[in-house]
Amino acid sequence: MQASVRPALTVNLPPIATSASARETPEALAMRMTISKLDFFYGPKQTLFDVSMGIAVNKVTSLIGPSGCGKSTLLRTLNRMYETIRGARLRGEILLDGHSILAQDVTALRRRVGMVFQRPNPFPKSIFDNVAYGLKVNGSKVPISDAVEKSLRHSALWDEVKDHLHKSAYELSGGQQQRLCIARALAVEPEVLLLDEPCSALDPISTAKIEELLVQLKDICTITIVTHNMQQAARVSDFTAFLLTGQLIEFSPTPQLFTTPGDPRTEAYITGRFG
Amino acid sequence: MSLRLRWRKFVSGFMLTMTGVCALVAVSVLFLILGYLAIHGGASVNWNFFTKLPVPVGETGGGMANAILGSAKMLLLATLFGVPIGFFGAIYLAEFSGSTTAFFVRYAADLLNGVPSIVIGIFAYSLVVHPFRQYSTLAGGFALGLMMIPITLRSTEEFLRGVPNPLREAAMALGASKWKTIATVIVPAAYRGILTAILLAFARVAGETAPLLFTALGNQFWSPGWTHPTASLPVMIYTYALAPYDDWHRQAWAAGLVLLVLILVINIVARAILSRGIAVPRS
Fold first, then answer.
1. Angle ∠(A35,A41,A44) on CA atoms, nearest 5
2. Most buried residue, A70, A202, B140, B280, by most Cβ within 10 Å?
3. Distances (CA, A) of A150 to A144, A183, A185, B49, B230
């Protein structure tokens, strides 16, 4: 009975991340991004309180927590996407490679910090043009078709689409569309890739493919993923941050957070007592 | 069957028939007009109609070449004047303005859309015709352009707002600036709707007579350049239909037929455009 409830996963699942040993603390690693004393407000309402953490180079960092805990908000500060919302402002400091992201040109920042969204959102263009888009708007000098192929290979989509690159992106399945969105983000060679619940609209098999992909992508960029799925965080990430009502409760290597949580609230959440 | 059920069935049948008849009346008006125009004007639509000038009273034959060209020139001016203002105004409304500004601009556009076309004509007269003491193609085009602004603006805005927000976010997250996002993602995603809106605005003003009476006036001859009174199809229909000559009546019918066919063709083209290309699926 139990077995039939679980989705049948026949594809290769990534092993539970073990690369970060329990002794390896987030603080001891080279940091791609550093968040310090971050407060965030939507108008008068504060949604993040004094968050400080680091995003380690070439690791997967996941942000977990119940709905409304501020994990998506935190993610959206990292490429300043929050600025598209009227009345949103933050206090504190976020560094990318040691330089404040707030002092940089926002378009330049977003080239370095790419983002994949909750629902696949390909442009109403061909598969090729979707991936080429970032290169075109940024006036990239590299040959576009090579870069498109490279990105599609990175996102494990090349073999499925190489014969119909000029078809509409909407002809792909949901999971393929999401991998196309990852390819689109990878095309501009970002240093950091942010994913905002990238699998929440996908079926289990597509989800497994994307998880597998994330583990491979660590080699070429630093990944931060928001997920409402604790098993997913456990499977793909090296570090996990647990947020609750806008506060960072715990931030540790993933195996440690899930096996020996340091805070009773973390334990309550990961054991399913709330959220 | 109880009385109550029988009554219900009767009401149901009655209402169904009535809605059907109303729908039939609505579509048959178009076909009646088309048929009527074809019967009365069809015979006069010939090569001469498109190539010859009107002839003096008493002579038969002649055409409305000057009116066709006059209409074309004024519609060109109107499009050049009205469409950019409507289009860029819509971009401001949909992408930049706050909700208060948007409300007022939208409200003003709706009011402008509801201003009777004859009032638009008087306005154009006092602004363009009166100061220069000259009826002109320019003034006619200006009046028609004024009418195109609110139609283009409102429908373009609707289509821009219809572009899903995640597409804007996707473009911005790739490092596209706001204007690049608009130019490379939002407008292309909405372009078919926008083009349709422009064509419909064009079709709408193509048949306008009232704004031209005070601005382009009318002309029995060619109107060189842009600063002379010019003939136009709708005004020609108006003048010819009121005249007491059978031949003129036939010509007026023919002009009506040409105008209506033109508008039908534009509508069909607009629909064809809407059904092509990659559409953003509705989620």
1. 160
2. B140
3. 10, 9, 12, 62, 62
B96, B179, B187, B278: best to mutate for the A interface, most A CBs within 10 A: B278
In contact, B181 and B227? CB cutoff 8 Å = no
- In angstroms, the CA B72 to CA B262 distance is 11
Task: Give the length of chain A.
Answer: 275
Whether residues A123 and B167 touch (CB distance < 8 A) is answered with: yes
Q: Is B175 on the interface with A (CB under 8 A)?
A: yes
**Residue of A137, A165, A191 to mutate for B, most B C-beta atoms under 10 A:** A137
Q: How far is residue A111's CA from residue A194's CA, in Å, rounded to a whole number?
A: 12
Distance in angstroms (rounded) separating the CA atoms of residues A63 and A233: 8
Size of interface A-B (CB pairs under 8 A): 78
User: How many angstroms separate the CA of residue A4 from the nearest CA in chain B?
Assistant: 31
Q: Which residues pair with A223 in a beta bridge?
A: A60, A193
DSSP characters over B44-71: G-SHHHHHSPP--TT------HHHHHHH
Chain A partners of B185 at a C-beta cutoff of 8 Å?
123, 133
Nearest CA in chain A to B175: A107
